[in-house]
Specification:
Length: about 170
């Protein structure tokens, strides 16, 4: 009996680990293909984002701001991102930082009884990676070049256990 329980636990763990998503999350949830923004020049190269369904907000999701912190760069000070050629279309969020995923029952309890949100977060389905140093930018689609706009910088908490920049509530 004990061996059967151990085998069942191992099988459940393997299935659970293999179910993590590798699908990238779209910056705009829409039934149709989102419209693309004009090309914008950054210090590392050109990017293009997507417009929200109403066309009022331009989203540039997953712009690299540092080299991937993997290999020799792991746990080191971030290094400036490399320049890129061509135009990067930034219409999907980058992976979230490595963290232990909460079990389904823990997520259910927190969502329904603590946060009172039974719909869930797209964060639950986001891919995980150590390569996670990316910037998401939301700006008015009619923003005038050179004009100064208010800036909100959001750095999620989570103590290396939870959190990302793609919460639905933000």
């Amino acid at each position: 009996m004990k061996k059967t329980l151990i085998a069942a636990a191992v099988i459940a763990a393997v299935i659970s680990m293999s179910c993590s998503s590798t699908k990238k999350l779209s910056a705009v949830q829409s039934k149709s293909e989102p419209s693309l923004t004009d090309v914008v020049e950054t210090i590392h190269g050109k990017v293009r984002g997507v417009l929200t369904e109403d066309g009022k907000v331009a989203i540039y999701a997953g712009i690299p701001y540092a080299k991937p912190p993997v290999g020799e760069l792991r746990w080191k000070e971030p290094q400036e991102a490399d320049d890129w050629e061509g135009i990067l279309t930034k219409d999907t969020f980058a992976p979230i930082a490595m963290q232990k995923k909460q079990s389904g029952i823990v997520r259910f309890i927190f969502r329904n009884f603590i946060y009172h949100d039974s719909d869930g977060d797209r964060e639950d389905y986001a891919p995980l990676s150590e390569d996670c140093l990316y910037l998401n930018i939301w700006t008015p689609s009619d923003a005038e070049p050179g004009k100064k706009y208010p800036v909100l910088v959001y750095i999620h908490g989570g103590s290396l256990m939870t959190g990302s920049s793609i919460y639905e509530t933000h």
